[in-house]
UniProtKB/TrEMBL annotation:
Gene Ontology terms describing biological process: L-tyrosine catabolic process
Organism domain of life: Eukaryota
Keyword Cytoplasm annotated: no
Name used for this protein in its record: Tyrosine aminotransferase
Family the entry assigns: Belongs to the class-I pyridoxal-phosphate-dependent aminotransferase family.
Gene Ontology MF terms in the entry: L-tyrosine-2-oxoglutarate transaminase activity; pyridoxal phosphate binding
InterPro entries documented for this protein: Aminotransferase_I/II_large, NHTrfase_class1_PyrdxlP-BS, PyrdxlP-dep_Trfase, PyrdxlP-dep_Trfase_major, PyrdxlP-dep_Trfase_small
Domain Aminotransferase class I/classII large: 12-99
Keywords, ordered alphabetically: Aminotransferase, Pyridoxal phosphate, Transferase
Length: 186
């Protein structure tokens, strides 16, 4: 079942500020795209950012590094305006957009400086942990499942034992695979 665009269009009044791209063009309103979880795509279906419709109607996109990398304390995100026709370039709009951006607290500067290195090296570091293997490439989710190779570990009986010892020794909390029916996965 698809969206009934005519029914949606009928709901629009002078208070409407954003809409679906083609309907937004017809009505002369902006598309606001909250894409903080946009990277979560499943199977063969790719995520399509709304910014690609910027030639149809202006698009304001919100994204978040904090959500993508599961680090809410980083408070890093972005706001992108895709407006090839320049319809949002009025000083009033830009002033309001700047005012909105000033509402949010800024991230710590040391995190901003560390982001490029963190992104580049995270996956490589996981590959170096020899007791973990990645038999399936994650195609979407906020978590990845990895297989725990117990034969490479001393004094670890199973995934639950591994998780308890990791939490106690290194203060790292992870979910044992047994919690979702996969023994010796994390």
């Amino acid at each position: 079942m698809g969206v009934d665009l005519e029914a949606v269009e009928a709901l629009v009044d002078h208070k409407t500020v954003a809409m679906i791209a083609e309907t937004a063009k017809t009505l002369g309103v902006v598309v606001i795209a909250d894409e903080v979880y946009g990277h979560l795509a499943f199977g063969d279906i790719s995520f399509v950012p709304m910014g690609v419709f910027g030639s149809v109607a202006p698009v304001i996109t919100f994204g978040s590094l904090s959500k993508r990398w599961l680090v809410p304390g980083w408070r890093l995100g972005w706001l992108v305006v895709n407006d090839p026709d320049g319809s949002l370039k009025s000083p009033k709009f830009i002033g309001r957009l700047n005012k909105y951006c000033d509402i949010c607290g800024g991230p710590a500067t040391f995190i901003q400086a560390a982001v490029p290195t963190i992104i580049e090296q995270t996956h490589d570091v996981f590959k170096e942990i020899h007791c973990l293997s990645f038999p399936y490439k994650p195609e979407g989710s906020m978590a990845a499942m990895v297989m725990l190779n117990l034969s490479l570990l001393k004094d670890i009986s199973d995934d639950i034992d591994f998780c308890f010892k990791l939490a106690k020794e290194d203060t790292v909390i992870i979910l044992p695979g047994l919690a979702v029916g996969l023994k010796n996965w994390l």
